[in-house]
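Contributing new complexes? Match this layout with pyridoxal-5'-phosphate.
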Amino acid sequence: MNQNWHIETQAVQAGYRPGNGEPRTLPLYQSTTYKYDDAQSVADLFDLKSEGFFYTRLANPTVDAFEKKMAALEGGVAAVAVSAGQTASMLAILNIARAGDHIVAVASLYGGTVSLFTNTFSKLGIEFTFVQPDADSETVRKAIRPNTKAIFAETLANPALIVLDIERFAGIAHEAGIPLIVDNTFPTAYLCRPFDFGADIVTHSTSKYTDGHAMAIGGIVIEKGNFNWSNGKFPDFTEPDPAYHGLVYMENFKAAPFSVKLRVQFIRDMGVPMAPFNALLANLGLETLHIRMQRHCENAMAMAEFLENHPKVSWVNYPGLKSSSQYELAKKYMPKGCSGVICFGVKGGKAAGERVMNSLKLAAIVVHVADVRTCVLHPASMTHRQLSDAELKAAGVSPDMIRLSVGIENIDDIKADFDQALANA
Ligand SMILES: *Cc1c(COP(=O)(O)O)cnc(C)c1O
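Output block (do not edit by hand):
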């Protein structure tokens, strides 16, 4: 792979380079298994002594190409694609924390992530402390305990649209000898590369802008490659793994110990790989990532201004607006644009907002976000339904919030649709 290529070229070409006479486009390897000539070759694969494919639960050539492209786009050394964005958040944590450990999370998070952290992980004995994204550094430092294994946050929070000060949180994490894990689903690598600002692990729900067409659920965990797992806080990386005849991840897999460990321990044992066909679709989506993201940003900026000036609209939250409290952070971390999601409220509150949503013709009500088609959702009654009032407030969700995901249709048609719907507010 040519490391000097620009991100647009990587989006089209990285991950799969055909040899002479091989298919020009990434083939779908729809096979659970792989054929070998002798038993020793397979034994060596099982012992991780040689590299290759032997069972699609662990690795598959189509998924592998997608992983390599995502790693190239984010500027990481390796990536592991998994069954969903939820799986990516789960395994990024499980790979470094076990029962008795603790994680600091920035509170403005996707509802599913909050539920995973507060409900499921607490049953597994992993504790979380939530801090506000604008908490002063001393408060964040105080939340870190001797058994804290990471800080977890979203670059651009879904749906609060709060921009993470990545450098600040990375600095605090590194002082404590722990990694910063960043969910970069909303900006994608095209708008922001968290590794460039000090993040150590990046996760994505590839179900969103990566696929971009709302066709395939998936997730990915990407490793930057320079975190020091040998600092005494992460014995699972430096002590022999009895599950693999005593190999040591920091010695045997120096280049990408986090990714190898995540794959061979958790994907193997829990059975949560990305399906090859989903990797094929996500890879196809990535081929137009840069073009799509440009149009999403352009259309969202225009819609944010349109809504801000609309007499029926009470408030608009979009980090690209000068009126946004996130404007300065957005300029630093997302100079090319603030992605395609806007939140707003309608005068008259929740009931008026519902009437607007029900009157839309081009924009659809769907439980999704971040694809080519404009859509809306009401977080408090849909994606964030399971959260308590206090959790809703912490996640930045107000009862009247409408989340608008601006697609790549013609902007005049999108505006006209909202104009006629707002007339019914
Ligand atoms: C959707 C989403 C997830 C969960 O991803 P799934 O693919 O739906 O499991 C995680 N984080 C963010 C920011 C999301 O938007």
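Reviewers usually confirm one structural detail per submission. For this one: The pocket of pyridoxal-5'-phosphate is lined by residues 84-86, 89, 110, 112-113, 154, 158, 183, 185, 205, 207-208, 217, 219 (CB under 6 Å).
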